[in-house]
């Protein structure tokens, strides 16, 4: 047996060579990105647009590519990653919302001489179909059974809630009218129900431009829908009422549809929840003398009852899924409601009152304490739906780099969808397309990137393919 011994100089040569190879590979990626981005910017779709791309080496933090990285652009839904990372830090991955069922007053024989009181904390999953424990039917049956178990057969008061703990201004700044009436424009309240949305079934004829019928209770809408060619998809929009009490549905759906479903936002979630609870109570043989539902809510009465919110006798506490599960669906399905609820939760947990402006102030203060220039996060909501938001790609990448070092990172990373073979969040609003995330190349190199385009023209899908070609350099 013998050992081959290499001279020290030879080992040194090998080490230097490997180092140079690594540097050369990095330079190659940078150069390729520079070339690909230059071609991208010259494309006719970007004639009047502005684009920003920022890429770093995930292991070293070294900048691989930077163009317009400190210019604030509308990030669309890639902003959800900022809200997600902030939520993990401020609330913790085990955080759960709670919604309590209780009552005020006394139970005399079988009659409650007081009110049923629902005390919310802004849970966006309350009544959601995404989790077994939050399904609407399970919650209303459980709570009606709990009320019956407490010996209550008659309710002398009403079903009320702690509305004063949240701002009544549920709509973030800059949200546009076209979005507000549709499911993705659902806004958060202190009590949310079924993700604050409901479905509408439509029936179209066989002729293009023929009228579309709203199935079921169609007296609640002004209907301007028309039939369009086959395979044109869902181009129907619900607009909240502006001239009377009735929402307007306009746009098109394909011809020949017998039960075409669209989803609209619910601006009265507590009222709809309380109605369902009342129906379930009736099935249990329990009646209520008066209600606080619909648009005729007695606010004077409700305000007096709210003074007793800290004296309610609790019958049950419903807990939401943990934050890591909420964040998973938030990013996977890009649920705007979740982002806006989280922003208000930041404020509620810090100040005891949930509002969008206060929540954003909490978010910006947190990242400022981490060394970020808060002016790089010029935001007005938590989901990115508002076109008023302005965020830099540099800020997004810095936040993603920060997240990578935290113990909650696997849950954050797992929440990211996969597009083009890369773990990244996409963002889309009118004139905006963005991608932000992580990628591990074939050679083992890991990158963190943010790519935002504002004010492009032409087909969104065509632009996406061109953005993919630039990002493919990282593979």
Nutshell version of this structure?
The protein is α+β, with helices and mostly antiparallel strands. The chain contains 12 helices and 22 strands. Helix 2 (80-91) runs parallel beside helix 8, helix 3 crosses helix 5 and helix 8 (336-351) packs across helix 9.
Could you outline the blueprint of secondary structure elements for this entry?
Elements: H1 8-42, E1 50-57, E2 63-67, H2 80-91, E3 98-103, E4 106-108, E5 111-113, E6 116-119, H3 136-149, E7 154-155, E8 159-161, H4 177-180, E9 197-204, E10 212-214, E11 222-228, E12 235-239, E13 248-254, E14 260-265, H5 269-283, E15 287-288, H6 299-306, E16 313-319, H7 323-332, H8 336-351, H9 356-369, E17 377-378, E18 390-391, H10 393-404, H11 409-414, E19 418-419, E20 422-429, E21 432-440, E22 446-454, H12 460-471
Parallel strand pairs: 5-7, 6-8, 7-15, 11-13
Antiparallel strand pairs: 1-2, 1-22, 3-6, 3-16, 4-5, 9-10, 9-14, 12-13, 17-18, 19-20, 20-21, 21-22
């Amino acid at each position: 047996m013998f050992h081959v011994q290499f001279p020290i100089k030879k080992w040194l040569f090998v080490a230097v060579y490997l180092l140079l190879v690594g540097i050369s590979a990095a330079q190659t990626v940078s150069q390729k990105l520079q070339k690909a981005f230059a071609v991208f910017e010259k494309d006719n779709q970007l004639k009047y647009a502005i684009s920003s791309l920022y890429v770093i080496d995930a292991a070293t933090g070294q900048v691989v590519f930077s163009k317009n990285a400190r210019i604030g652009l509308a990030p669309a839904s890639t902003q959800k990653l900022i809200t997600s990372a902030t939520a993990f830090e401020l609330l913790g991955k085990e955080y759960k919302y709670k919604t309590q069922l209780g009552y005020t007053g006394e139970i005399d024989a079988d009659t409650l001489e007081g009110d049923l009181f629902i005390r919310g904390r802004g849970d966006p999953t309350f009544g959601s179909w995404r989790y077994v424990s939050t399904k609407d039917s399970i919650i209303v049956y459980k709570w009606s059974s709990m009320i019956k178990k407490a010996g209550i057969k008659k309710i002398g008061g009403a079903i009320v809630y702690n509305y004063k703990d949240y701002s009544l201004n549920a709509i973030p700044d800059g949200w546009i009218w076209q979005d507000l009436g549709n499911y993705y424009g659902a806004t958060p309240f202190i009590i949310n129900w079924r993700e604050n949305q409901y479905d509408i079934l439509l029936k179209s004829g066989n002729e293009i431009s023929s009228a579309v019928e709203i199935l079921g209770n169609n007296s609640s809408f002004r209907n301007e829908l028309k039939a369009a060619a086959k395979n044109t998809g869902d181009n129907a929009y619900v607009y909240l009422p502006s001239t009377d009490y009735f929402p307007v549905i306009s746009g098109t759906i394909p011809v020949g549809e017998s039960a075409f479903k669209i989803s609209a936002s619910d601006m009265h979630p507590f009222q709809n929840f309380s109605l369902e609870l009342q129906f379930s109570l009736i099935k249990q043989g329990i009646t209520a003398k008066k209600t606080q539902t619909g648009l005729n809510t007695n606010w004077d009465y409700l305000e007096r009852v709210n003074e007793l919110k800290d004296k309610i006798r609790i019958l049950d506490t419903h807990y939401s899924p943990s934050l890591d599960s909420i964040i998973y669906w938030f990013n996977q399905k890009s649920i705007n409601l979740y982002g806006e609820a989280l922003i208000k939760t930041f404020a509620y947990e810090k100040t005891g009152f949930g509002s969008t402006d206060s929540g954003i102030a909490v978010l910006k203060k947190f990242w400022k304490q981490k060394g970020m220039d808060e002016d790089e996060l010029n935001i007005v909501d938590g989901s990115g739906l508002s076109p008023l938001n302005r965020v830099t790609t540099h800020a997004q990448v810095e936040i993603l780099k920060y997240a990578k070092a935290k113990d909650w990172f696997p849950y954050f990373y797992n929440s990211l969808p996969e597009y083009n073979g890369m773990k990244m969040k996409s963002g889309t609003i009118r004139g905006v397309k963005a991608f932000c995330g992580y990628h591990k190349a074939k050679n083992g190199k890991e990158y963190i990137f943010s790519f935002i385009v504002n004010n492009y023209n032409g087909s969104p899908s065509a632009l996406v393919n061109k953005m993919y070609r630039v990002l493919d350099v990282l593979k």
